[in-house]
Design brief:
The complex is a heterodimer. By secondary structure, chain A is α+β, with helices and mostly antiparallel strands. Chain A has 3 domains: 110 residues, Acyl-CoA dehydrogenase/oxidase, N-terminal domain (Butyryl-Coa Dehydrogenase, subunit A, domain 1); 93 residues, Beta Barrel (Butyryl-CoA Dehydrogenase, subunit A, domain 2), CATH 2.40.110.10; 148 residues, Butyryl-CoA Dehydrogenase, subunit A, domain 3, CATH 1.20.140. Chain A contains 11 helices and 10 strands. Chain A has a 4-stranded mixed beta sheet with strand order 1-4-5-8, covered by helices on one side. A 4-stranded antiparallel beta sheet of chain A has the order 2-3-7-6, with no helix packed on it. Chain A has a two-stranded antiparallel ribbon with strand order 9-10. Chain B has 3 domains: 83 residues, no CATH class; 119 residues, Butyryl-CoA Dehydrogenase, subunit A, domain 2 (Beta Barrel); 119 residues, Butyryl-CoA Dehydrogenase, subunit A, domain 3. Classes of the chains: A alpha+beta, B alpha+beta. At the A-B interface, α7, β10, α8, α9 and α11 of A face α8, α9 and α11 of B.
């Protein structure tokens, strides 16, 4: 057994960290948050040039051909930097959907554009408030046309390719919809974290093409979400680690009652608990990444564990970050809110920690 | 990253399995090693393992080990635990005190004690904690006064596992009360059958008596049994405690998440299986996730150890998570059974195993570093936060204030 990343993989991670420290300070997320821009386009071009968008895409389709372990470490660094780009939508969702279920022809058509960043992809599954399982889907495909409303679609306002989960007669299918096109109306929406985009996508007899086996959409969507959840867990862990590190430094330098507040056991013990929560999430995520890379059946449970513990850890980190910063943590000026927003956004996108716990026990016990 | 056995690990596992398979009939089947017969069984098994090279695998060959890697040791423990459920009564000696003697003992001490310890011929106890010194172990008051070639010892130790069947103990005692507390301690090997030693079992809240009080009344210890320099015992204590952290078991006392899931399947709630209830399912998922997190964290540590890293303070995470989790799971299991959850013994589900775990769980959160001490370790030694403010800093031991407890 060797339960660690290789030296080459760690080197890649360090390269990613160095690159983001130069090109994606926390100001980058703030700038997107405060402007009308949907994402940081220069950074998007940069990460495309670094080969990160195609990290798991084979070279034959224009990717870098690394693998999912490498992609996971890149995700962790993007999370650390709160990178304001549609990476998760385009890479963990759209790209993974094509890798999972695309025909060679579909891969040839879309993967090179996704790898170069010229095309942004996403998954459209949610249809408004509540938990949406396949039985409740109202978006339908008939022939090669889809109709219905998907909300929210992460990065839907900038997407050039949507993988939609749709009703298909009595079953569920995945459908590819290219944008822009006639019959598709996209509206950007406000959200708790405007450093990432959300949209309403209205499909009205829009041209579409089935992805994967017809009628197998429920199973395909579940497997796709397991892959995405594993990668997203790394992004969340990166964010949590950064929040802990900033908070730790703040508590060391902030004095009250004549001593650093980091010397008070009330804070020391909570910082220790936060560290432990992050380590447990990391260990679960490592195992899921191994299962993902090696196509192990254990991914079905490992992804749930990784996702639920990473969501909890990042949410805990961002809440503690504000609480330990005190009043300044509640100001627009300090960076704490960037983490608070992002942690909730990532925890809700792909489904809440509780949903993943429910999914886990379903898979463990039937 | 590869989760499976490497070829050499698989070969080692096969070798271990083959030996265990061939010797399965000799595995002790007794309880917790609390009676003489069970102790004798454990000793026979240990000797059999030692003769075949399966005792203290990580020890150097010169003391009878096989200088095995941490990974091989884990593989052996995994395989042995498939056959043997009883507690290892030799673990305090072999896991903590032996390694301390290897570092700080004289050549004569190593030659005399290590092999019988490995073979299980002699059992060891740890005499550290006192009624007035638990987490603040350096505040201990048992003292030794020099008398010719001997030391005369008086005081009281507590929470001594297996004192009643032990041959030797490791005693930390105060040899100079006029200096700061850490600087006046010495580390001794003591004959547990020596005149003046009185052992009284402690009855725990779960009814068991795994621990003892040990009283010292003018007990004579030869100076040749001192380990390390006079008043330099704290250095030995640190070595022992570092080994404790890496050898502490994370076991749920044989009860795991699978058992809890099974219990939820069998138990009826309003005419359905309890496991169909959403709140039950969510709790089970939460426990599973934390248990897996601890398990994979230990694999990450193990990978680091295999590459020559020294056991770090991160090792505290396992017990810090699993001890309260054990209590939570046991408490939930009792709740799950409804009003019948109060019952123990044969009238209860799983013959009262969960109730016993519930009653025993508080002890795990205290032994070998309380939850609170472990949080301090993580905060100070992993995160680099300031140490606790100490009211006794720089004070001679005899001037440190004490309370009434």
């Amino acid at each position: 057994m060797n339960f660690d990343f290789s030296e080459e993989q760690k080197l890649l991670q360090q390269t990613a960290r160095d690159y983001l420290e130069e090109h994606c300070q926390l100001d980058a997320a703030r700038q997107v948050l405060e402007s009308s821009a949907p994402y940081a386009s220069d950074l998007w071009k940069g990460v495309a040039e670094m080969g990160w968008l195609g990290a798991a895409i084979p070279e034959a389709y224009g990717g870098a051909g690394f693998g999912h372990l490498e992609l996971a470490l890149i995700a962790q660094e993007l999370g650390r930097a709160l990178a304001p780009i549609p990476f998760s939508s385009s890479v963990y969702l759209a790209t993974e959907a094509l890798l999972l279920a695309g025909t060679p022809e579909q891969r040839t058509r879309y993967l090179p554009g996704l790898a170069s960043g010229e095309r942004i992809g996403t998954l459209a599954h949610s249809e408004g408030a509540g938990r949406g399982g396949s039985p409740g889907l109202t978006t339908r495909i008939e022939g090669d046309r889809v109709s219905g409303t998907k909300i929210p679609v992460p990065d839907g306002d900038v997407a050039g390719l949507i993988v939609a989960v749709v009703r298909d007669a009595d079953a569920t299918s995945l459908a590819l919809v290219e944008l822009p096109c006639e019959g598709v109306d996209v509206e950007a929406l406000d959200s708790i974290d405007p450093s990432r985009s959300q949209a309403r996508v209205t499909l009205n007899d829009a041209p579409a093409e089935i992805l994967g086996e017809r009628g197998a959409g429920e199973d395909l969507a579940a497997r796709l979400l397991d892959r995405a959840a594993t990668l997203m867990a790394f992004e969340q862990i990166g964010g949590a680690e950064r929040a802990l590190s900033i908070t730790r430094d703040f508590c060391m330098n902030r004095y009250a009652f004549g001593r650093p507040i980091a010397s008070f056991q009330a804070l020391k013990h909570r910082l220790a608990d936060l560290f432990v929560a992050i380590e447990l999430a990391k260990s679960n995520a490592y195992y899921a990444a191994w299962a993902l890379q090696n196509d192990e059946p254990d991914l079905a449970t490992a992804a749930c564990s990784a996702r639920a513990s990473a969501s909890d850890a990042f949410e805990l980190a961002s809440k503690e970050m504000i609480q330990m910063h005190g009043g300044v943590g509640f100001t627009w000026e300090y960076d704490c809110h960037l983490f608070y927003r992002r942690s909730k956004l990532l925890a809700v996108t792909l489904g809440s920690a509780d949903l993943w716990r429910d999914r886990l026990i379903e898979r463990l016990t039937g | 990253m590869d989760f499976n056995d490497a070829p050499e690990e698989a070969a080692f596992r096969a070798e271990a399995r083959a030996w265990l398979e061939a010797n399965a009939q000799a595995v002790p089947t007794g309880g917790l090693g609390e009676n003489a017969e069970a102790v004798a069984d454990e000793k026979r098994w240990q000797a059999l393992k030692a003769d075949a090279g399966w005792a203290c695998l990580t020890w150097p060959e010169e003391y009878g080990g096989r200088a095995a890697s941490p990974m091989q040791n884990v593989i052996w423990n995994e395989e042995e635990s498939k056959y043997k459920a009883s507690v290892n009564i030799f673990s305090i000696g072999q896991g903590m005190l032996g390694p301390t003697l290897m570092v700080h003992g004289t050549e004569e001490q190593k030659q005399r004690y290590l092999r019988p310890m490995l073979r299980g011929e002699e059992i060891w106890s740890q005499l550290f904690s006192e009624p007035g010194a638990g987490s603040d172990i350096a505040g201990l008051r048992t003292h030794c006064v020099r008398d010719g070639d001997d030391w005369i010892t008086n005081g009281q130790k507590i929470w001594t596992s297996g004192a009643h069947y032990s041959d030797w103990g490791i005693l930390v005692a105060r040899t100079d009360p006029n200096v700061v507390k850490h600087a006046g301690l010495s580390y001794f090997i003591v004959d547990m059958k020596a005149p003046g030693i009185e052992i009284r079992p402690i009855k725990q809240i779960d009814g068991g008596s795994g621990f003892n009080e040990v009283f010292f009344n003018d007990v004579r210890i030869p100076d040749s049994s001192r380990v390390g320099e006079i008043n330099d015992g704290w250095r030995c204590v640190i070595t022992t405690l570092m080994n404790e952290r890496s050898s502490l078991g994370m076991s749920l006392g044989g009860l795991g998440i699978d058992d809890l899931i099974e219990l939820a399947r069998e138990t009826r709630w309003d005419g359905s299986a309890a496991i169909d209830d959403a709140s039950v399912r969510r709790r089970l998922a939460d426990y599973y996730i934390r248990l897996k997190g601890v398990q994979y964290t230990s694999y990450r540590s193990l990978t680091a150890l295999s590459r020559g890293a020294t056991p770090g303070p991160e090792g505290s995470i396992g017990k810090l998570v699993s001890a309260p989790l054990r209590q939570e799971m046991a408490s939930f299991a009792v709740d799950l059974l409804g009003e019948a959850g109060v019952l123990r013994g044969d009238a209860s589900a799983a013959r009262g195993a969960w109730q016993s775990a519930y009653l025993g769980a508080p002890g795990i959160r205290l032994a070998g570093g309380t939850d609170e001490i472990l949080r301090n370790i993580v905060a100070e030694r992993v995160l680099g936060l300031p140490p606790e403010m100490r009211a006794d800093k720089g004070m001679a031991f005899k001037e440190i204030p004490t309370g009434s407890l």
